[in-house]
Design brief:
Number of domains: 1
CATH class: Alpha Beta
Structural class: alpha/beta
CATH superfamily: Alpha/Beta hydrolase fold, catalytic domain
Low-confidence stretches: none
Largest sheet: 7 strands, mixed
Strand content: 15-25%
Number of helices: 6
Shape: globular
Order of helices and strands: EEEEHEHHHEHEH
Distance between the termini: 28 Å
Radius of gyration: 16 Å
Length: 220
Amino acid sequence: MRTEFISHNKNSLIIFFCGFYTDANCFIEFDNSQSDLLFVYDYSDMDNNPLEYFDFLAYSKISVIAYSYGVWALNYVYNQDLLPQIESSCALCGTFYPVDNEYGVNEKIFDLMAHSLNCDTIEKFEKKMALGASSPLNIKPAKRDIKNLSDELLNIKEVSKHTYFRKNFEFDKVVIAKKDRIFPYSSQSNFWARHANKLELECGHFPFFEFKDFDAILEV
């Protein structure tokens, strides 16, 4: 894993677990400068965890947002007991099962993507992220290369296949995208069926333009 820290000299912090492909650059326009931000991304090496060395004690309030495969990654970190005390949390367009025919992305579809990554398939992926929106989305591209992204997908499947979660992080809120063309709506709906506070949106896999900023997500 890698992290990118953005300081606004605040005593509150939002930890943002990015999804596959994404990094801080994809989400920076939703930063309202009211909290410091710690973006977690790149799951090509789960053993390398910079969160272990971050000074969370500097903050009086810590919230977490997890997006897509970042929902699984957050739960992985949580099971390593590396998360601080969290005051509020929201999961968007993801579950604790990255590759699963009932609760995640279909295994055959995942494998096809993982073993055929190139500039063309990444471009198609970017377009799929924006599908389902009522108006065209200007999603800022991630600053990552094909090799890194391929390694990320392969490692996510390998690690998730051999990882048993002894506990699960309890999100305060869940956002489900009904027109998601990447992480199936049916998988999201199945997994979060019993969650007491979930919001279903008529949008695609990138739901962030449905909110003004990160604070609005946490206030769902």
